[in-house]
From TrEMBL:
This is Pyridoxal-phosphate dependent enzyme. Residues 14-302 form the Tryptophan synthase beta chain-like PALP domain. Its cofactor is pyridoxal 5'-phosphate. PANTHER family: SERINE / THREONINE RACEMASE FAMILY MEMBER, SERINE RACEMASE.
Amino acid sequence: MIQKEDLIATHQRITPFIHETPIFTSHLLNGIAEAELFFKCENFQRMGAYKMRGATNAILQLTKEQREKGVVTHSSGNFAQALSLAAKSLGVKAYIVMPSSAPQVKKDAVKGYGGTIIECEPTLGARNTMAQEIQSETGATFIHPSNDRNVIAGQGTACMELLREQPDLDVVVVPVGGGGLIAGTALAAHHFGNDCKVVGAEPFEVDDAYRSLKSGKIESNDTTNTIADGLKTQLGDKSFPLIQKYVEGIVRVGEDEIIAAMKLVWERMKIVIEPSSAVAFAAVLRKKNRFIDKKVGIIISGGNVDLKNLPF
């Protein structure tokens, strides 16, 4: 189990390598939600997403010998960029397995951050196989994008910062993909909050975490037809028990609701957020009665958007 002291040590460890992101508010959005909203803007994090936190912590926990051999992960999105930049910042080689179907803009970003891309077929099995081959060939350490203790602890530092500035939050709402962010957030709320609940947000199209909480076992998705491309992964055996223990529930939202929430934030707050980030705000709007008159923290998970492919 990740203890309070572990989270404090993690934050101290990664602070030189990350941004402490701002917390924004909006009177207009408060009025629409009928709640007091505090947006933790991880879209302003280095490489544009909270994943920089977990990637940095995971590399910093490696031995000198491990760092010399590099790190490897499989990711088509933000963790690919995060591990590449974290590795570059720490003088470590990063091998990034990416599906051939990954957008060119994301491949370009990984290359820009110094990552070495190895392409594979766009299946989870192919990604795992290729990552294992690189491990065998190079001796690099595999770091999972979400199902890793050090990654989870790193992601939890965003909520730590949020609660340090707003210690009386009633609830924190976060999007759910692989579960690293919500697991870390739930730990932070448990250790640093004042009876602060954590609620997940998930598209109906990829509601595996919602179904997992219902069934008591990790579920998967038959299809992943959602605009929230960062939430297409499933929970792991390290994140799921934390979610079961510390998360109050998960709210599901529709694709139109995600787009509407994203557009509201762009128009009214003047900040760039990606569709996956909008899912948390969409959940607050969908279940307004659940959050009415409460102090609600919303973690904006990232702002890496393909500007040539906006949904509005």
